[in-house]
TrEMBL record:
Transmembrane segments: none annotated. Residues 147-233 form the Lysozyme inhibitor LprI-like N-terminal domain. This is Lysozyme inhibitor LprI-like N-terminal domain-containing protein. It comes from the Bacteria. Residues 20-43 have a biased composition (Basic and acidic residues). Coiled coil: none annotated. Residues 18-43, 92-123 are annotated as: Disordered.
Length: 239
């Protein structure tokens, strides 16, 4: 009987010891729901990230639209004051950045293209040469009959040629005034004064000779010299 009690007690002690060795299962930690403030912060963080992404892609109009929406929805709300100020600051920055970008584009478009300028010079010269060629052909055709008749007709033909070439020369000279820098224009003005004097001296000398044919000849020489001068100015100075 005594042995039975000893064995029973030992078994009870063993069972108690095993029970103490086992760990009780841990209770799962409860996760609290996010607060309203956390939700608000997350919402505006996402909105501002979207704005920055649009800004990086140079989509300024869309970025400003998003910011304007934030400014409107946070207006007069003390709790959202920080987001309101942040949106206004970003809106101002993007507007400034957009303006700078536009100004840069405008400046780039204003910069002269050397290749286009070169082509324009060639085109202008070619146009004036073609125009001068046409004037010459038209005058020859218009005065063909007059040159074969009386001195009066010849004088009329000469006067027509002088008028046409003087007009062409004045047009070319006027164009050069807008193209040439002031220092080159001064050189041309002095050169032109000398040319005018030489032409007048030469034609007067011819016209003063005895005989009715010389005044007529002086007219044709004057027209011829002016015609030649037109081509010289275009070739030498036209830009």
């Amino acid at each position: 009987m005594r042995k039975l009690l000893i064995i029973t007690g030992a078994m009870m002690l063993f069972a108690t010891g095993c029970g103490k060795g086992e760990e009780e299962p841990k209770k799962e930690q409860e996760v609290s729901a996010p607060s309203e403030q956390d939700k608000t912060e997350a919402t505006y963080k996402e909105k501002f990230e979207k704005v920055e992404a649009l800004r990086a892609e140079k989509k300024f109009a869309e970025a400003k639209k998003e910011l304007q929406a934030i400014v409107t929805e946070t207006k007069d709300n003390e709790k959202l004051k920080t987001y309101h100020q942040q949106a206004e600051e970003k809106l101002a920055d993007i507007t400034k950045e957009e303006g700078t970008r536009v100004e840069k584009k405008v400046e780039e478009t204003k910069k002269p293209d050397p290749q286009k300028k070169k082509e324009s010079v060639k085109s202008t010269k070619a146009e004036y040469i073609a125009k001068l060629d046409k004037i010459g052909k038209d005058l020859d055709k218009a005065t063909e009959k007059l040159e074969s008749d009386t001195n009066a007709d010849m004088r009329e033909a000469g006067d027509k040629k002088i008028a046409a070439w003087d007009k062409a020369l004045n047009e070319i000279y006027g164009a050069l005034k807008t193209q040439l820098p002031s220092n080159e224009m001064k050189v041309l003005q002095e050169e032109q004064r000398k040319w005018n004097k030489d032409k007048e001296d030469r034609t007067k000398k011819i016209a003063s000779q005895p005989g009715t044919a010389y005044p007529v000849e002086a007219r044709f020489i004057s027209a011829e010299l002016t015609q030649k001068r037109c081509y010289e100015l275009v070739e030498k100075y036209m830009k």
